Amino acid sequence: MKTTVVAIAVLGLSVAFGASPAAAQAQWASMDVQGGGKQFQLNNDDGSAIVMLCLVNGQAVAFQFPEPIESADRATVRGTPGGQENVQVTQVAEQLLQVTGARGRDFMLDLLQSATRLSVRAAGQNLAFEVFGRASPVRECFQLQ
Fold first, then answer.
1. Is the pLDDT of residue 42 over 80?
2. What are the start-end ranges of the H helices in the chain?
3. Is the dihedral of CA 102, 12, 50, 138 positive or negative?
4. Rounded CA gap, 104 and 102, in Å?
5. Order of strands, edge to edge, in the sheet holding 83-93?
6. What single DSSP character describes residue 116?
7. How far, in Å, CA of 109 to CA of 25, rounded?
8. What distance in Å separates the CA atoms of residue 28 and residue 16, rounded to the nearest whole number?
9. DSSP conformation class of 21
10. CATH code for 2-143?
11. Which of 39, 42, 86, 37 is nearest to 63 (CA)?
């Protein structure tokens, strides 16, 4: 439970301090977090992002929406290639849904390593990300353990 509280607190900060992409092609931004972990954020020009928190004792994944969203307990995530799954989420900020449960987190981490595109639908809003060639932060995340 302590890990979840830390993840939520750090992911909540990512909304306020999210980095903007430097070029038209989205890239992972990273920053060190307390306790020897790292936060990676894949930002889109529209203000949406995938946030991945990597700690010594686990990982967390969240979706940042460009505008405030209604509360949701599930999100449909689709990877191309990679399949589609409904994952459990919890709202941790006005614009941020965190994936909860090991199954959903593992599905997301697998997609971030293998898919070329990723789409998310939650609370009536859609997000789309180009993730091809961006698997190195996921590998780095696993190396922190």
1. yes
2. 2-17, 102-114, 136-143
3. negative
4. 6
5. 28-33, 37-43, 49-55, 58-64, 96-99, 83-93, 74-80, 117-122, 125-130
6. S
7. 21
8. 17
9. P
10. 2.60.40
11. 42
Helix-then-strand count for the chain, H and E: 3, 9
Give the C-alpha separation, 55 to 16, whole Å. Answer: 20
Query: In this structure, what token pair is assigned to residue 138?
Result: 């996921």
What tokens does 132 get?
């091809």
The number of C-alpha atoms within 13 Å of 56 and in the hemisphere containing its C-beta is 5
Asked whether residue 46 carries a pLDDT value surpassing 60, the answer given is: yes
Give the model confidence (pLDDT) of 85-116 as tens digits: 999 999 999 999 999 999 999 999 889 888 99
Q: What is the pLDDT of residues 51-71, one digit of tens each?
A: 999 888 888 999 999 999 999
- Bridge partners, residue 120, by sequence: 77, 127
Residue with tokens 């593992």: 106
